[in-house]
Amino acid sequence: MTVTIARAVGEAQGALPDGDEPIVMIAVHGSYDDVVRCYESFLRETDPRVPLLVIDDASPDERVVTVLDGLLRRMGAAHTVVVLRQPENLGFVGSANNAFAIARGRDVVILNSDTIVGPEWLPRLQAAARSSSTIATATALTNHGTIVSVSADGKPASTVPGGHDPREAAIRVARAATRTRPRLPTGIGHCLYITRRALDVVGGFDDEFAPGYGEEVDFCQRALAHGLQHVVADDVFIYHRGGASFGESPRKRQLQAAHERIIAQRYPYYHPWVRELAIDEGSMLAAALLTARAALEGLHIAVDGTCLGARVAGTQVNVLATTTALAMHPCVARVTLYTQRMVPQYARDATEGIPGLELRTMPRGRVDSASKAHVVVRPYQVQHQWELDVLRGIAHRVVVTCLDLIAYDNPAYFGTGAEWQRYRDATRAMFREADAIGFLSGHVVNAARAEGMLDGDVPHGIVGSGTDHVIVPQEPPARPSGLGDIEPGYVLVLGSAYHHKNRPFAIAVHQQMRERGFRGPLVLCGASPAHGSTLPDERRLISEPGAVAGAVVTLGSFPEEHKAWLYQNAALVLYPTLSEGFGLIPFEAAQHGVPVLSTRAGSLDEVLPRGIPTIDALDADQVAGIAMKLLGDQSARDDLIDRLRDHATAHSWARTADALVELARASLGRPPRSGDHGHEGQRGAKGISRTMGNLMDSTVMLYNAMPGAREAITPQGSRREQAARRVLGTIRRMR
């Protein structure tokens, strides 16, 4: 194809072929290198049926026109290109109005000469413009475009976030976009799709804004007055260098200030509207910009690791395994693990040397918006409502994993009814305010639905728990000190002495096994909860007439490093739990080569393989019979262990990270569910009350989050521990 040079509007009209495609207009006046890059991207990325109208605004450099013939030949482009050579410089307003006249009944796309477009830019832009019959303009996202600038601080920048080239940036933004097409106060001129309906109703640009600046704002306000709207094509990113038309001269600043005054006089609502939208983190526009920013920068995910203390239980394992899996995820660029001030060594060891992973102390207040993570993940449940405010302070979106609703449904695990109610309130707040919610299993999803807490509109999904964190030592682990005279060949029960862990049933099963000839002891390992403990029942059963002294050994809580020895020296693991969010114990036991008898209660029915021997009825005699048969049949034991190991491959931490990344992305494309949308402060008596309540909750949290100090100050079972719990109970009642 060749370039048609026209000297008048009518001549240019006649050179354009008939069709329904929009006319793309590029006004040129110097800036040769920018113009060439713009031409090349247009010819490469735009359907050849779309004509290009170049308005040569009396450019002092003729190359901005003469280069076109060579580009068409070199690129093999089949586009119709018409150049209107204006004999004198009319400025952008005059050039655009000529383009509107030339387009005759067709939509017009204004494309700045210092832009670079990406794949499918025009079909996506057109889809946004035609997504409603009342749309006047559609604007593309960019790096340099006032309120549609994709950057950490929301300000225009000359570079693309993440350092991508413009084409790759366009692909990434399109792939991540939710296509919500947020509304705008005005279209932005770097790339503006104007519908013919708007041009027919409103007319062209007002000559009072010649040669440029403010003309599109005035046009868009007139369109709004006619009931039309302006949208962002949030799946289109176009690079814009910015400042090429007028530069950064004093004349530019004077011109811009004068035209801003005209806008303020005509539309006094406009500037306050734009200022408010620019800082509103709860808007659809903010969500679209955040989604695009995360797509370009790579996800920055924070993980709440404030539960990491001296003691290691399932929650701590979950946090560290989740953190490391996220850090290694291909879509995650950076992970920040927020901890208490005293970071335990096991946490440092687990995270050391992993690229893109850093440890930080949880800040006391909010961090600035540019420094916030895109998403914070809390891989365990909220205990206090104020914790949600803390999470909001470090990230734009909050994703929480609901492990189970066991405590929510059970008042026996709390000292008072008021304490239980506060926990329930916090759980409901978690479901109400989290931007996305993960669940360990479908069982937990159904439990949340049954309680009426799961809003069907909030992004949610099953994240599961990984089983591949279990590291089996190359050599048999050395016997830890502090385990007394326990000899190998015992029945092992791991789990805190909560009622739902059902440890008294394990004692009954063990007694029946002894009657059948088993001589090994029963070893109960796990912390003693302050409320809802089965220890009194266990002591009663152990001391009943006929009970054998030493047949049951209660170890209480134990260091994580003891676990391998405890597993590998057990003859059998019993897991008689009545309710479970996931259930790692059977998989851990199998990885260490020990058979396990578990219930299928709660989520276990989903995660355990079918056809393995399990505790199907709480009949101690029946279960003892299954246990003894299993202990006497090496083939059956090997088959059980192998099947659990094989099934464990379906539960990896990499898959957990995949699910969390999916939830994180889903949360970005919608406004935050929290009511304050990032505005600082709580005012009045309500704010003071909440602040005092948060301080009291902090006291409780610090005591519970520092097990090492807690054990030294108030040893478990001591009078000092009882006194400390009374004090903390008083604080809770004050809340």
Keywords, separated by commas or semicolons:
735 residues; alpha/beta; Spore Coat Polysaccharide Biosynthesis Protein SpsA, Chain A; Rossmann fold; 4 domains; 10-stranded mixed beta sheet; 7-stranded parallel beta sheet; 27 helices; disordered C terminus
What can you see in these coordinates?
The chain has four domains: 3-294, Alpha-Beta Complex (Spore Coat Polysaccharide Biosynthesis Protein SpsA, Chain A), CATH 3.90.550.10; 298-462, Glycogen Phosphorylase B (Rossmann fold); 490-648, Glycogen Phosphorylase B (Rossmann fold, 3-Layer(aba) Sandwich); 681-734, no CATH class. Helix content is 42%, strand content 16%. Helix 1 packs across helix 4 and helix 17 (503-515) packs parallel to helix 18. The chain is an alpha/beta fold and 735 residues long.
**Helix/strand structural class:** alpha/beta
Give the % helix: 40-55%
CATH top level of the largest domain is Alpha Beta
Low-confidence stretches: 677-714, 730-735
Tell me the Rg in angstroms.
Answer: 33 Å
CA distance, first residue to last residue: 77 Å
According to CATH, the homologous superfamily of the largest domain is: Spore Coat Polysaccharide Biosynthesis Protein SpsA, Chain A
Number of strands: 22
| Main β sheet profile | 10 strands, mixed
